Amino acid sequence: MKWSRRVIKYMIEGLFTLSGGVTSLVILLIVVFLFKEGMGLFTNPAVEKGYALCVNAANPTGSLDARVVKQIFDGEITTWEEVSEGKMTGPIALFRFNEIFSRYTEEELGEDYALLSPRLQEVVAGTPGIIAFLPEEYLPPGQEVVKRLRAGNITPGSFFTGGEWQPTVAPAPRFGVLPLILGTIWVSLFAIVLALVPGLGVAIYLSELAGARARGWLKPTIELLAGIPSVVYGFFGLVVLVPFIQKLFSLPVGESALAGSVVLAIMALPTIITIAEDAIRGVPRALREASLALGATHWQTIYRVIIPHASSGITAAAVLGIGRAVGETMAVLMVTGNAAVMPRSLFEPVRTIPATIAAELGEAPAGGAHYQALFLLGCILFVITMVINLSAEFIASRGQGKGVGA
Amino acid sequence: MNRKMKQALAFATFRLLGVLVVGVLFSILGFIIYNGAGVINWKFLSASPEEGMSAGGIFPAIVGTLWLIAGSIAIAFPIGVMSGIYIHEYLGNRWIVKVIRVMTNNLGGIPSIVFGLFGMALFVHAFGFGDSILAGSFTLGLLVLPLIIRTTEEALKAIPDTYRAGSYALGAGKLQTIFRVTLPVALPNIITGLILSIGRVSGETAPILFTVAAYFLPRLPSGIFDQVMALPYHLYVIATSGTDIEASRPMAYGTALVLVMIVFMMNLLATVSRLRLGKKTKMD
């Protein structure tokens, strides 16, 4: 062989080798990028970046919890007694940065707002009970009259166990993923409950009862339906299902967890049917014939012999169906109403993790806390689906060993 | 109740379920076709959206989707086929194959929105492609990679080892065997996988949301660094957030039908290619 041909051969085989590792590499990259961005969230201060909370220097309060800050700015907490364990008394005077423009005229603020900081200092120094939310660049000088509150970072605890998802409120945005995680599980689980029995029924019908002709066109049709884009299913849900549910249960809005579950169930059906049918057809002929030879009816054979034998494949089908439902984005986004609240019933709007990412990422400035929180949601979704897929694979592979002799 | 009756009852239930499920799935298709068929005409397919996307057509979205199909397939097809060849022809049955297969299956199971996030972080920001056809094509390409790898692997698996042995016996090397014997025989099934990937790429919305898709962009792209409109995203936009949702309903039905038609045609093509091309190189 000439050396030039040998070089080409090695180059081509090198390319093959590289391509062989590409999926592993992509998964690795996904993990690295998602987690790198997502973990950045916990380096963010609990108060919006670039801003600070200030109090009068006479105020002994050193730091405030993010939740308390929100309650203060929402007007739910109005006196210092409630937050400072008796060290500070009197009513809380809220001060937001833009209020400075109504307190002082333009001349008093100086040319190019040069006097802005001193004026802010006057305000803070003159009001003992003040809590001021100010941009860092205009932070008033003078440690002896103005004290900056220490704000801790966003903590994993507040992220994973927090019950409120309000990523854009000022001064302290709230990143609690519990409602989103529960919403995702709520919608997906109910979808599988809806889809499992019909899906299994169709799988049994296709593999045991349908004639060759019926099977011949049903099977490709069902595979075709698996290929219909999710946005089309979402659109169908939006124009047909949502108004129908609203009327049927006389709800204020039809966008609800139920609508999401029904659409997801319809979308999961082809997956469940195809995999369960494969599992049922994989049952060795000898088992079936032995059962029939013992005098069992076809139906007895199905539920005593075939279904138990195919159970791991059927379980895998259900698990993979859940996996598809958990990660489904567009259809859910279009029909569930997207209210980031704890799910309480099937008839209220909920919001899932994928829908949150799709709806909010476009508006979150790159690199900010909100952006990083959405990446962390992506990490959670990645981990959930990874666990689901791996367990489906494990369940399915456990069933493969079962032969006639076993 | 005797066992014959139980059987009759059970089977009747299954038949009913079968009819019910198929009925639901078909009524969805029927609904889209019934409402969309009246909208589709030459103008709808060849004009830009007008009057706040409630009139005109979807031409820019069709062109955008074609760009994305071409881009993502150009990226995923060669890599996927080479990967399939490497796994089946070079690794054979070693333990590493199991690892790679688990990885490939898992990549296929990752939700498309996660691909969107990843594509945005890597291609749009880290590589600096911006919102562009290039970034979108890479993201979609990675999404369909597992599908192409799997179909290639299956296609190669279906070829009897006698073909390879015969080639080696005639003195051909490994690469020659792959390019002259194995690949040509496997081609129909690989093409089937390719066509199915096209169907998949054309309908995905979540991965392109933050990597390429434009809300409204009537002019056509001039290069791979341009943003484009795309059919699935366009449907999402006019179904949920157009300026006049009610008025743009017909447009939405039409767009949905076009998407369904693409999937239909791709499945039909895949079946045809499997049958037609398969006949020429019949193996047993």
Description:
The complex is a heterodimer of chains A (406) and B (284). Chain A has helices at residues 3-20, 22-39, 66-73, 100-103, 106-109, 116-126, 156-161, 178-209, 212-226, 230-248, 257-281, 285-293, 298-309, 311-327, 330-335, 353-360, 369-400; strands at residues 51-56, 93-96, 130-135, 146-148, 165-166, 174-175. Chain A has 406 residues and is mainly alpha-helical. Chain A has two domains: 51-152, D-Maltodextrin-Binding Protein, domain 2; 178-400, MetI-like (MetI-like fold, Orthogonal Bundle), CATH 1.10.3720.10. Chain A has a four-stranded mixed β-sheet, with helices on one face. In chain A, β5 (165-166) and β6 form a beta hairpin. In chain A, α11 (257-281) packs antiparallel against α14 and α16 (353-360) packs antiparallel against α17 (369-400). Chain B is an all-alpha fold. In chain B, 74% of the residues lie in helices and 1% in strands. Chain B has a two-stranded antiparallel ribbon. In chain B, α3 (59-91) packs across α6, α6 (133-157) crosses α8 (174-203) and α9 (231-240) runs antiparallel to α10. The longest helix of chain B is centred in the N-terminal third of the chain and has 35 residues, at 3-37. Chain B is globular. Chain B starts with a helix and ends with a helix.
Keywords, please?
heterodimer, A: about 400 residues, mainly alpha, D-Maltodextrin-Binding Protein, domain 2, MetI-like fold, 2 domains, 4-stranded mixed sheet, two-stranded antiparallel sheet, about 60% helix, about 5% strand, elongated, B: about 280 residues, two-stranded antiparallel ribbon, 10 helices, globular
